[in-house]
Amino acid sequence: MKIIGGVVVLKGKSSLHKKLFILVLCVCLNVVALSSVFASTETKAEAQPAKTVNDIQGHWAEGVLKEWQQKGYLSGFEDGSLKPNGKITRAELAVLINKSFDFQQTSNVTFKDVKSSNWFNQDVAKAVAAGYMKGYTDQTFKPNNAVSRQELAVIIANLLKLSPSDTADRLPDTKNSPVWSKGALGAVIDAGLMNGQDQKFRPLDSASRAEAVSVLDRASKLKDTYTVSYNKAGVYGPASGTETVKGSVKINAPGVTLQNTVIEGNLVLGEGIGEGDVFLKGVTVKGTTTVNGGGKNSVHFEDSVLVTVIVNKKDGSIRIVTEGATSVQQITLQSGARLEESNLTGSGFGNVSLSDQLPANSLITLAGTFETVDVIATSIRVDLTSGSIQALNVASSAGHADIQLAAGTSVNAMILNAIANVTGTGSIGTATINASGVTIAQTPGNVVVGGNVQATVNGRTVGNTSGTTSGGGGSSNSGGGTPSVPSAVYGFGGTITDVNDLPVANMTIKFRKGVGAISGDVAATVVTDAEGKYTVVVPPGIYTGELVKAGFITTYVVGVSLTDRYNPDQDATAIKVPAADELRIVLTWGEKPRDEDSHLLGPTPNQHSFHTWYGGKQYYYGDKLYADLDHDDVDSYGPETTTIRKTVDGTYTFYVHNYSGNFDGTQTLRNSNAKVEVYSGNSATPLKIYHIPVGYGDELYWNVFNMVVNGSDIQFQDKNELTSVAPTHELPEYSNISAAPELNNITAVNNVGPHDTLTVKGLFPGDKVKLYHDEFVFYSDPVAESSDTAIIQDLDFYPLGETIYVSVISPGLIESPWVEVRVLPEEGSDIPNTTLENELQKVNDHVVVPGLTTVGDSVYLTNSEMNEKAELEIIHFEPVTVQDTVYLELDAASNEIKLLQFNTSGEPIQYRATVKVTVGQESDTKVVTITLPTLREALNETIFAVESLENVLILSDADKHSIETAREIYNNNDAAEEALIEALKDMCSIWKFYTNRS
C-alpha cells in the first residue's frame, strides 16, 4: 500500500490490506474535514492481524533477539511479536537488565508512580538495589517513559561501573551534552558498547528495543562482568566434553559442583558459600580465581587448572584441596587457610605467597608438596603438617613468623631475612639466616649466616661479624680469625606458556650470561616439565635463555640469578609458528622502554579499515576472527605478537608505539634494540626482519612496513622510519554497517514466468543478500566459505520490468544501504505507451502537507505513481506567505521537497512549486500550491490517525499510553511548543512502526 498525495494505492489481496485500506480511507475522509489530507512519504504497509507474528525476520538484530528469546530474557507481546523498532521504557529496560545480569536483591522503593500492584514493581526495586537506575528529584521513577540513547549510556555505564571518558567531545552531537551524561557517553563509546553513524550518536533519540538488547548483549560479554552466576546448589557444566564461558563466573551458594568448564575470565567463590563446600572438577580458569567463601570441610579443585588464586575468607576458616591432575600456578593468601594436596597426579600448588594483608596471628596450614612459599606477612604461624617445601622465603619486611615443621616433613632451602622461630622435628636442607634473632630448633644440613648476624640453631649461637657457615652438626664458629663463607648459589626458575596461557612442556632453554646474549657459550641448558616449569642453578647475574622447540618460533626469556635467594617467576611466552594460511608479526625489544605496543591497520571486507592494539585486541567480521593482538607484553623484552588469521585484499600497515613515553630522555625507541619479524604459514623462518633505526631522536612511533595483499600475492613495502605522528590507513575506520553491493556486480534476469533470478557477486563468506521486490522481501542463503556469489532463484518480476532494491547483510553487521536496480522487461513484452497529458494530471494542483510528515521527510506532489517513461522535475520553489523562516526546502540532490521544521507560527503557511513533466521529447509545466498546517493541526491529525489503528491492530500498552499523553498535551492550550513537537514525533513514530512492517 502506498499513500501518495492523499490517494491510497493498494497492491496485494490480503484481507488485512483491505482492512488497513478502509482504515486509512476513513482517516483520510475525517482528516479532510480538518483541512488536511494524507500525503505522507511512500511506505509499505503489511501490518499483522491479532495472531502470532514474527516481526524480527530479516531485522538487523534478528540474531541477538532470537538468542535472548531462547535464553528466556525476552517473552514478547501477546501476539508473539517483539516490536524491535519500538521504544523501550525504563521499566522494560530494568526487566531486561535484571534477567540478563541475574540481579536478585531488592531495595525498598517509595516512588509515587510505582505501586506494589504494578507488574514492574520488583524489577524497579532490583534496579535501585543494583545501583544502575534511580528515581527523579520529584520522587518518581517514570517507568513508562521512553529511554533515550544518552540515558541508556548512563545506565550501562552505571551497570558496568565504567570510568567517565571525554570521547564524547569528538562527536558533534555529543560534545555539548549535559554533565550528567557526557562522561558516560564517552565511556560506552570507548568500550565499544554504543557508537554512532556518520559521526552522529543521536543522544536525544529514543532507544529501540533492538538497540537496547544489542547493547546489553555486548555489555554482558565484557570480560569483567559475571556472565554466569550459580546461586543454588547443584551440578553445573556438561557431563562430558567441555563448555567455554567467554566471560567470568561467580559461585555464591554452598553445594555447587562446576564441571568440565573453561572460564575465559575470572572465577569468584563468593561469601554466599558461607561455611559450605564447592567442587571444581575439570575446570580451567584463565583469569584470577578469588576465594571469599568456603568452610573447614573444603573447596575442592579436582583435575583443574588455575593460574592465579587469591584467598580472602574473613574468618580464616577455609580448607582448599587440590586433587587429581590439578595445578595451581600461584596462590596468594590474604586470610588464614589450610592448603592440602590429596591423591595428586598433577603439580598441585605451585608458588604460595603469604600476603602482607594477612591479619596478625593468622594460621596457615600446609599439607603437600610445595615449590615455593614466600612469607611476606608479619606475626603469623605456618604449619607444615605433611609433605615438603622446595624453597621457603621469609621476606625482610616480614617478622616474628612461627614456622612449625611436623615429623616427616622437609624444607630443602629456608631463607630467613627477618626474625622467625622455627620449631618441630621436620628436616631442613640449607638454612640461610640474614637476620639476628632467628631461632631454629632443628639442625639443618647446612647453615649460612650473613654478616653481623647472630642466630640460635639447635640451642647454639651461630654467626659473627664476618658471617658463618656450618655443616651438619650445626656448630657455630665464634673464634678468632675470618672463617671462609662459601657463596650460596640459588639460581632462578619460572614457567613457559603459550599465548593462551597454557604450559609448554619439553621446551629446551639454553642460557647464556648477559642481556641480549643470543650467541656464544651456553652457561646451562634445561628442559621444561609437564607444567612448563623450569629451574636453573647458575651464579648470580642476568641470563638470556633461548627457547627452542619444534613448532615454535625461536624467542628468548631473560632471568636474573640473585645473590641472596632463589628467584622465581622468571616467566616467558613461547610463540608458535603460524598456521598454514596465517601471518604472524613478532615484536621484541630490550629493557627500555618498558612497554612498546604493536599496532596493525588493515582492510575489512566491507571496505573500511580495522585497528588491532592493546585497546582493541581482536577484529571480527561477523563471527570470524580476521586479526588479533594475541599476546600483549607490558614488561620489557617482549615478545608481542599480532596474527593475521584471514587476509583481505588491500594494504596493511604495521607500526610500533612507545607507550612508556620518553619522559627522562632515556627510553627512546631508537635505543630499544627493537626487532620485528614476520612469519608465514607453518614456517619457523621469518619472511621479513626489521631492525629499528638507531641514532638520536625521541620519536614515539616506528612505522615498520606496509603489506599489500592481492589474492595469494603478498608484497611488502619497507618503511622502517620513526615519526612523531601515528600512521593512518587510507580507508575510513571500521563501520558496523555492511558494505553495499556494487551495481555492476548485480544481475537481474527476467524470464517468462516465475523463473527469474537475482545474482550478486563480490561478496564475502557469510554475507546474505536481501531483495525488496514489490511488497515482498527475499533473502539469499549465506555465501559459502569458498564463494563470493549469492543467488536468489524462482522469482517473478513483472513482465514489463520494474525497479527493485538490493542490500547486503554481513554477519554481525547492520544491513547495507539499498542499491536501486532496474529489471528489464521480459523478452517480447510490450511497454504500454503513455501521454504527457496523462502524466501531468497525476500532479496535484494543491497539496496539504500531512501531519504524519516529520522533519526530514519528503513532501510528495503526485496522486499516483508516474509511468517509468515519464520524468518529473521541480524547476522552481518559493515561499508565498512567509519570508524570514524556512520550513520547507527543495533538496537539489534528490529533487524532492523536504520538511525542515514544524510550523510553530500559529497560521498555515503556503509555498509554490513549478513542476516540469517530460515524456519522450515532449514536456510541460504545472504550478502546485503547498500548504503547511500549524503544529497543533498536524498533531491533532496524527493523533486521530494513530487512534484509528486500534480498529484493526493490537497496540502495546506503552503505545496506548503515549497516545493518551499526546491527547492530553493537545487539549492543553498552554502546552509548551517543545511538548507539542515531542508528542507529534511520538505519534509519527508509532504510525510508521505499525504501517511500515513488511
TrEMBL record:
Q: Taking every annotated instance into account, which residue ranges of this chain make up the domain SLH?
A: 48-106, 107-170, 172-230
- Sequence ranges of Low complexity compositional bias: 459-468
Name the species this protein comes from: Paenibacillus dendrobii
Task: Please give the residue ranges the record annotates as the region Disordered.
Answer: 459-482
Could you name the domain of life of the organism this protein comes from? Bacteria
Ordered alphabetically, the record's keywords are: Membrane, Transmembrane, Transmembrane helix
This protein's name: S-layer protein
> What residue ranges are annotated as transmembrane?
20-39
Regions of biased composition (Gly residues) lie at: 469-482
Signal peptide coordinates: none
